[in-house]
């Protein structure tokens, strides 16, 4: 009887050690990737969530000599990070079974690596763009960084064999989530977000517009 209890205790302790090791490994891995991509900052806002078709046929995506542009390098890192996130789930999630709920969980997961102070409603600095002293409110990923991240992942999904119809990054749920994050952070930080209008050069007519685009 005692020997059976000892065996059960050993099995339970071994499972707890494995679970703790997996969580530590996952957290460490994402911290390393985040640091490499932005030196500990929020995801860079380079490039926004414009349509994936904007990137498929752009000859300027690669520099001369075959080296990847800064945008393409960032997009590849983001894609590898997301794929690794799916593999680290228990059980692992195949890319073919990925849906908008996995994307939403991924965005919420990334908040722990954010560097943007977002005041809670009970905070005395709520709605103040420049609080005079620090507070205990959490750090989050900035809305602009998440918006740009989704744009890169949406393009990468189709470039890696995914179809436009099944693209989880183009889901209405993702657009709604980003809109809610934008509005909440605008109120909490006292910094309203203004949609940037496309700029056209009168001398060039309709040749080019601003490269900065946002979700509708």
UniProtKB/TrEMBL annotation:
Q: Where is this region: Disordered?
A: 16-72, 189-216
> Is-annotated flag, keyword Transferase?
no
Show where the ALOG domain sits: 70-197
Q: Which UniProt keywords apply?
A: Developmental protein, DNA-binding, Nucleus, Transcription, Transcription regulation
Q: Point out the coiled-coil segments of this chain.
A: none
Pfam families tied to this protein: ALOG_dom
Q: Name one GO cellular component term.
A: nucleus
Query: Which segments show compositional bias classed as Polar residues?
Result: 23-38, 46-71, 202-216
Q: List the biased-composition ranges (Basic residues).
A: 192-201
* Top-level division of the source organism's lineage: Eukaryota
State the compartments where it is located. Nucleus
Sample GO molecular function, one term: DNA binding
The family assignment reads:
Belongs to the plant homeotic and developmental regulators ALOG protein family.
Name of the protein described by the UniProt record: ALOG domain-containing protein
Q: Which organism is it from?
A: Lupinus luteus (European yellow lupine)
